[in-house]
Amino acid sequence: MTLASGEELRADHVVLALGHSARDTFEMLHARGVFMEAKPFSVGFRIEHPQSLIDKVRWGKYAGNEILGSADYKLVHHAANGRSVYSFCMCPGGQVVAAASEPGRVVTNGMSQYSRNERNANAGIVVGVTPEDYPGGPLAGIEFQRALESRAYVLGGSDYQAPGQLVGDFMAGRASTRLGSVTPSYQPGVRLTDLSTALPDYAIAAVRDALPAFDRKIRGFAMADAVLTGVETRTSSPLRITRDETLQCLNVRGLYPAGEGAGYAGGILSSGVDGIKVAEALALELLRGAA
């Protein structure tokens, strides 16, 4: 490994624990011949509701109980066009946050403070995509993400506001012009528009199919004033640095791809579990070498 200073670090064993947005590193590894392949991930929007609505539906008469706190949810729907739609990274009493890592692009994510006492609940409503949707090799998923993020930047006014739309308008196929009862939490702000061109047509159709189904599970989920904010594109890594049964890279002995960026996890907990698996595999390899 060569550092920015020019210093070179040599090692027989390297654990490669990248984040799922380490695009420059993915490109460098691919250019140097490290084996990798495109993998499925998901894209969509963030949706915001009043946290009080979610609490009322989930907790009933116990809504507002400080012991229960803010309610969360998990939702899945198989759309008529064959796409899977699901809630992702649900943040009770949280906020939608900016997550762009490159200029001229807009990406949303979500978070909750420990108190979970912000006015809105938010979650990603995302649609599964596969390498068939973005053919072109191991890095094609990154280019697919970039195209959607660049489009979101333009729809948001090209000043890093996020494009947004009320659910009622999204379902009716018309642009939103003013907010209702839900004030979006994203900073530096939300520019109301028509999100129908923010994602591929099949993803828009799948989300429109899913929202009424989610409303049957959580009454009020498809409320007209709920706010969709775009785009959510970083649900998981768009590629996998494939490894063998010893958890080493297929064509670089001693390189151990690990966690979310390597394509073997989908969040903090699963990344930690995969890190343990890689540490155990590396320990066994060192023991075999010492024997």
Description:
The protein is an alpha+beta fold and about 290 residues long. It folds into 2 domains: about 15-35 and about 245-290, no CATH class; about 40-230, no CATH class. Helix content is about 25%, strand content about 25%. It has helices spanning about 25-30, 50-60, 140-155, 165-170, 200-215, 270-290; strands at about 15, 35-40, 40-50, 75-80, 85-100, 110, 120-130, 160-165, 190, 225-230, 240, 255. The strands form 3 sheets. Strands 3, 4, 5, 6, 7, 8, 9 and 10 form an 8-stranded mixed β-sheet that branches. Strands 1-12 form a two-stranded parallel ribbon.
- Overall geometry: globular
Structural class: alpha+beta
Radius of gyration from the alpha-carbon trace, in angstroms:
21 Å
Mean pLDDT score: 96
| Low-pLDDT segments, ≥5 res | none
DSSP summary, beta strand count: 12
- Residues in helix, %: 25-40%
Write the element-wise H/E pattern from the N-terminal end onward: EHEEHEEEEHEHEHEEEH
Strand count, sense and barrel status of the largest sheet are: 8 strands, mixed
Q: What's the number of helices?
A: 6
Question: What is the total domain count?
Answer: 2
What gap, in angstroms, lies between the N and C termini?
A: 28 Å
What share of the residues does DSSP label as strand, in percent? 15-25%
